[in-house]
Write a structure and sequence with these properties.
The chain contains four helices and seven strands; from the N terminus they run βααβββαβαββ. By secondary structure, the protein is of the alpha+beta class. The two termini are 25 Å apart.
Length: 159
Amino acid sequence: MTVRPGTTADIPAAEEVWRLSVTERDGALPPLEVAEAVGGILRADTTHLFVAEEGSEIVGMGCTTPGREGGAARGPVIPDLCHVQMVFVRPSHWGGGTGGELLDALLGHARSIGQTRVQLWVVEDNERATRLYARRGFTHTGTVIEENGVAIGLWSRPL
């Protein structure tokens, strides 16, 4: 498996990884408006996409965007803060280390562009994800929001 920066050509495969992972986790297809928002994030000029590739198949994806005040996507940018988003792995590859390799690449990218801190949001009851982030030095900040009836916590760590 190789983790590399993604290209525009990788976006449809990254969207598929996201869709498969969310469907497996939630037991239902994600709503169309959420899928459209994911596509918008992946295509944004400020997004840095990374993909995990096995042979010619994209098996994982994740990205970074500028960190913003309040952890919100629309607040003012905080110059030294990186926001990690959408670390997803094909369900067939869960538990094989792909998520950790992707996260390591994202953290390495953040360091390479001069970031000193990183944050991310994670569904509170997503034990697989919270274990991964805790193993990589993230801690829960205590901030929790509710979105569509789902509790989502803010995690952070220095780089």
